[in-house]
Each structure stands twice: as C-alpha cells, then as structure tokens.
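step 3/5: co-fold with glycine
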Amino acid sequence: MSIEKLHVALADHAYDIVIGSGLLSKAQEWVPEKIRRGRIFILTDENAGRHYAASLQAAFPQASILTLPHGEQNKSYQGLERVLDWLLDGRADRRSLLIALGGGVIGDLGGLAAALVLRGIPYVQIPTTLLAQVDSSVGGKTAIDTRQGKNLVGAFYQPVAVIADLDTLTTLPDRERRAGYAEIVKYAFIRDRQFFSWLQENGDKVLKCDPAALTQAVKTSCAHKAEIVAADEKEQNDLRALLNFGHTFGHALEKLLDYDGRLLHGEAVAIGMMLAFDLSVRLGLCPESDRHLALNHLRRMGLKTSIDQVPALADCVTDNILQAMLNDKKAEGGVSAFIVCCGIGQARVYKDISAEVVRTVIQSGRKAAA
Ligand code: NAD
Ligand code: GLY
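step 4/5: write tokens
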C-alpha cells in the first residue's frame, strides 16, 4: 500500500500527516533529524502500548516509555502531573521529543504536557484509534477535562508530525471503530456532500478496515481537517468552529456520565449531531429529508442516534443536560450559539437560539427520533 502525505500549511509550524501501512517501525523517517537526536519519551496507554510500543521502539530504541491505564480519566490534573513528572524526572530538555502513541486521550494529554514542560518541547502524534487518526491528532488542540467540563484546560500546540499507521486499527474494538466513524461522517455533514454519498456506499468497508476504503476515508477526513486548521488555527473565525458540529450536545452527555466509558466520545458526538440536525430542521435551515438521510446512515453504521438509547441517561432530566451545556466552552452567551447544518454538506454558526427551542430539541431527543 502506498504512503499518503498531507500537509498542514501553518505559517510558523507547518507539518505533515503521513498515512499508510507498516509505518511504526520506521517512524523516525518522518521526524525532523535535529529533533530525533535528543531524548525521546513515548507516552502510551495499556492497550495501544501492549500492541504497538515494541514496534515503535524499533524506530526509537533509546526511548523512555510511560504506559498509563486506558480511559478518559487520564485527561485530568493528576494525569497531567504524572506525565510532567515523568518528563522532568527523565531530564527532558528543550531538544527532547515526546511521542504520543494512542487514541485521542493520550494525544490530548501528551500534547498538553509537551506544550507545558519547559514552556514547550516538540511532540509527534502517532494515533492508533480511528477517531484520533481522522480528527484529534491533527490541529494542535490539546487539553484535559476538569470538574466543570470537558477540555477546559488546554493549549493550541501543534505537533511536528502526525503518523497514522492504518495497521493499528485492526486491533481496535468494533465499538471504538464505530465511535471514530462518527467523526468521519461529521466532515461529510459539515462540508462535503459527495463524501457523504461515498460513505453511504463504502462505510461498511471502512468499518471492516478494507485497506483502500480506510485509506480513502482517513485521507479525506485529514484533508478537510488540515485545510480548516490552516485557515483558522485558533478558532478565531467561524470556520474551525464548524468541527464542533454536535459537540455542545455531545460533551454535555459525556459529562453527565462522568466520562466513564458508558458513552464514548464519538458515540456522544453521533447523538449530538442528530440533536443538531433536529435543531437545524426546527429553525427551518435544513430539509427534513437530509435529517432522515443522516439518521438512517448513522443507524446503519451501528451508532446510537438519540438520548433514550443510552440506558444510563434514562433518568437524566432535560435541565441537567442544559446545565451541562452551559459549561461547554463553545457555548457563547449561555447556550445560544450552535453549529447548524443547512443541508448535508453545509454548516454554519447560528447565534441567538432561544433556550426554549434547545429544550424542545433535547426533550424530543429523549424519545427515539423517528
Ligand atoms: P481513547 O484514547 O480513550 O481510545 C479508545 C480506547 O481504545 C482506549 O481504551 C484505548 O486504550 C484503546 N486503544 C487505542 N488504540 C488501540 C488500538 N490500536 N487497539 C486496541 N485498543 C486501542 O479514545 P479516542 O476515541 O481515541 O479519543 C477520545 C478523546 O479524544 C476524547 O478525550 C476527546 O475529547 C478527544 N478528542 C480530541 C480532539 C482534538 O481535536 N484534540 C478531537 C476529537 C476528540
Ligand atoms: N475536533 C475539533 C477541532 O479540532 O477543532
């Protein structure tokens, strides 16, 4: 299989995304030479580490490795402290390199630690989940969660390279693959109707890790992300914000379940996107037929599409969901600004949405969307 390369064209810190098969054991090839001569620190979790740390160590035999337990709980003050202590105890200096080998949790945590230690050392993302390969490893958003909400302490800090080895996805549990798929179809919903048609045809193959379909899906997703990030790195205009489609709702649902694995991030995003579609239809911005197409596709891909399909949320009242949304950092002036879909392939930020319509959307999301 050929190796695909995309470029994230940022003025001060441009980098490449490398996508292909068998990349881990030669990962040093894509790390700038002056960086790979310093101390190397590989941060991973027990699952990614068990399967892939040894192959990566073939590329960086001198590296020191920290293996964390798996799970969102790592994205915490305690998790961050542990990583910073490991780097400082290991005498990291400004020429050291941190490699984040794992899913979005390890990538977000490792990226933030790299941004903070010694006021910033270089880092490389080696994403091993579908979600991380198509979204979180690209674009430099790094963060931990706090008791107030998700990703509330973080930094924009770009990696020096992203190396997406598609082989790593073969060991990913089916549920995690589906959750990652939600972030793929998000690009189609917000900016690429043709990609949506392609996913309708090929989504099953992507989930089965068919090499050609997987390459195409990861490449198309990363190309969208790279273009958006290059144009609006720090979410200062409304372009990068579009990537948060479904996330204000989704983050609130995740928070209510304490990020404990009962609802994965991508699963929450899939439900959140359907709530955002419902909102868009109610505002008269999106044809009902497109909401239906989106719903059918997500269902066919095995994703939950409404709040009432999550047993753990059964007793959760609408006001709790609204309250959790207030702390989302995308909520400007209460929960009045949302990303809406104006028909599959087009999205925009819509301001001044009344709390009442949001409440109605949540209430109807608590009955299975038809
Ligand atoms: P994750 O990192 O928790 O990984 C999911 C599970 O898969 C974990 O149990 C992990 O141990 C396991 N795993 C990882 N790679 C594996 C492999 N190859 N084989 C078998 N098991 C493997 O979760 P995720 O879905 O990758 O990422 C979710 C996180 O990403 C959330 O914290 C979310 O907020 C964040 N995120 C960040 C951005 C961003 O722009 N920075 C974007 C989207 C999501
Ligand atoms: N995942 C949202 C962003 O990177 O902006």
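step 5/5: annotate
The chain has 14 helices and eleven strands.
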